[in-house]
Design a protein that fits this description.
14-stranded mixed sheet, 323 residues, alpha+beta, 2 domains, single chain, TIM Barrel, Immunoglobulin-like
Length: 323
């Protein structure tokens, strides 16, 4: 497998700030990302480009801030992460929003497309209700969407105490959605760092620092990111558009160095450590087995929409969508 030359960047996408319904300033979020060793930070405040308009897009020491937005339709459904645009689309019709983002040279990624609701206030589902043509990818693993699934007065305390138990695997519905869509498959925290209370009695739920150490999208590049921020942003967006990325949970370990590539009728996997591997196509299972660290040749190279899952300790460690 000739992929050792590729540059791997750890990206945290889908983050909200005070410019919409998050609680941190852009500066605070940047500091948390730097502390967590993040390379690329994606800001997606709801239907605004505040971070971009105020000059935060680009380099902050070793961190590149990808200043985007999160769009929605008139019914607040069909959310999408949009990057690479300098202005908002004039329409709230999803198909027109996707066309606008693409015409501006950006990328539109369906956000939490098949999420399930909870039974508490503000835990409704914001699922996908539109066509998929023109989408550049799918968010298959959203920490907060998985956490809120089925929340009710009886299980809310347990979910708050043990949130990682609710988010162990990508959303199967979102994976199936990606298999019918293509593009990149990304994992995101959907971070808000919600706070409750008054005065000194403030409880912060799911702080940025915690969420930035859970789900990561590893973006693969041919070369180091340019120092010129417009060129760097284009490089990131192009890699996502080509599906050159994989997702991981940091809880089972560091997944850096994983690679998946087609070579004829075979799939080539480079494993950064041992794990239970599952290859699944749109029609079902392709291969199952346990692999050690190293390079492996497996069936499935001729299967479109191949979902590669590596598990450890009963939870997903790595997910890679191979378009």
């Amino acid at each position: 497998m000739n992929s050792g030359h590729m540059i791997e960047k750890r990206a945290i996408l889908h983050v909200h700030t005070r410019a919409s319904d998050g609680t941190g300033t852009v500066e605070q979020v940047i500091d948390e990302a730097l502390s967590a060793g993040v390379d690329i930070l994606g800001i997606n405040d709801h239907r605004n480009l505040w971070a971009r308009d105020h000059g935060y897009g680009g380099w902050h020491s070793s961190l590149f801030l990808l200043a985007g937005t999160e769009l929605e339709d008139q019914g607040e459904n069909s959310h999408m992460l949009a990057y690479g645009i300098d202005r908002l689309p004039p329409s709230k019709v999803t198909s027109e929003q996707i066309d606008f983002v693409n015409s501006e040279g950006g990328i539109a990624i369906a956000a939490h497309p098949t999420e399930a609701p909870g039974r508490l206030p503000k835990t409704r589902s914001y699922s996908w209700k539109a066509g998929r043509e023109g989408l550049g990818g799918v968010e298959v693993w959203n920490y907060m969407s998985l956490w809120k699934k089925g929340i009710n007065p009886l299980n809310a305390v347990r979910k708050l105490r043990h949130p990682d138990r609710c988010t162990a695997d990508p959303d199967p519905g979102a994976v199936e959605f990606w298999q019918g869509t293509g593009g990149c498959a990304v994992a995101c925290p959907d971070a808000h760092a919600l706070r409750f209370g008054v005065g000194r009695r403030i409880l912060e739920v799911f702080p940025y620092g915690m969420l930035f150490r859970r789900l990561v999208t590893h973006i693969l590049l041919d070369d180091e990111l340019p120092k010129e921020h417009v060129e760097a942003e284009r490089s990131i967006i192009e890699a996502l558009r080509l599906g050159r990325c994989f997702c991981s949970s940091m809880l089972p370990g560091d997944a850096s160095g994983f690679r998946a590539a087609r070579e004829g009728s075979r799939m080539m996997l480079r494993m950064p450590g041992e794990g239970d591997v599952f290859l699944d196509g749109p029609l079902g299972a392709v291969w199952r087995g346990r692999l050690e660290k190293g390079d492996h040749r497996l069936p499935g190279g001729d299967c479109p929409g191949l979902a590669v899952t590596v598990k450890r300790e009963g939870r997903t460690w790595i997910f890679c969508g191979v378009p």
